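Progress report, Aim 2. The chain analyzed during this reporting quarter is listed below.
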Amino acid sequence: MSALPLVSHTSPDSIIAWRADGAVTLRQFLAEVGELAALLPAGSHLLNLCGDRYRFSVGLAAAIVSGKVSLLPPAHPPEIVRQIKVLAPDVFCLTDSDPCTVDLPQLRYPAMGASPPGAFAIPQIEATQRIAVVFTSGSTGTPQPHPKTWGALVSSVQAEALRLGLVGARRAVPLPCTLVGTVPPQHMYGFESTLLMAWHSGNALSHAQPFYPADICRALAAVPAPRVLVSSPVHLRALLGAGLALPEIAGVVSATAPLSAQLAQDIEARCHAPLMEIYGSTETGQIATRRPTQSAEWQLFPGIELIAEGDGVRACGGHIETPVAMNDRIEPLAGGHFLLHGRIADLVNIAGKRHSLASLNHLLNTLPGVVDGAFYMPDETSPDHVTRLAACVVAPGLDAPHLLAALREHIDPVFLPRPLLFVDALPRNRTGKLPRAALQALFQTHRNAASHKAQGNPHE
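Predicted structure tokens for the chain:
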């Protein structure tokens, strides 16, 4: 079976990453990979919780060359850790945080550079080697594991780099550039687009994992131009709202949720750079792109096909090793293009009337005064009980009557949220997604507080 290199960089002095103390060459990176690989415990599964993106990349590479599988859940609450222990009883945790409270055997990321670099050689990895297990985000239920092979991942990120103009004869961004990501590498999008794509496009990654607008600006300024910002709608919307001065950016990449055409136009105008969106899933990896300021249509990567099956479609071909039923409502078009019409699971039916949560969320977030918001459909309690939509909103200058009146202008009254919960912030994860369990907990807390108030508090 064919083998593929760990990275596409070939010169020992090529820059593969930027960290707080400056550039990291390929020779230095490979030396640190070898140094860490020699310290890894005997277990065959690694939970890589390094918050520094460069340290994460060294941990990932050390696991790959040691034949270990990296487990990459989007979060690590006790229930997910218990699930991981069942999946991989020999798992250990690599961490760079102190303290780390995960209930697993731990290896603290060590200080590097004590050993001089050895002979320079780029590791070759079998295409069929399973190198990672990624987990769904939990936005629609319990996170589910999905194994990934080296060959499929390399094929995916090479197609992405070509489509984004980072490699090839039609390269739009000068080489080398640095990828600055606001999304964590433990998430499938961050894993592919901030780390593996840097490895297999001859570009560099930034060690930083900024979240707030000021941190994003500092992370961009800390690396030389050209820079590509790999982010999400939540981070980009906050960056626009902050009004901070931005360093020169060569390109912007967004994923995790579709951008509206207006928001995409605002981002391009603010960053003075083209914005490309990535479409995919944990199950398939990335499979398509679009530039939303120019077209609503998505274009599939070469070799990827969408096959209609009943009311849905299956994605297959290219780097997709097994056909996958897509969870989105997709309208295939000619020439490898398609339109996206929201998630299948987000279609709600109330009193015989239908609407999608994605459309409702989009409407809510376009209302003046709304900073962030999301609709939520509670689980049905009984067949005789009509379940009503709820919504959670961040809107400091609005009250419920005014917001409901604004919504009533656009939607049928059966879709008006009851309750409408005003909060300081939504419980989004670092990729900007809202896990269903987090929303359930938020509304349960609200119901408990309302019930407690209605019953009266004898201590008040």
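Residues 3-342 form a domain with the Rossmann fold fold (CATH 3.40.50.12780). The chain has two domains: 3-342, 351-455. These observations will guide the mutagenesis work planned for the next reporting period.
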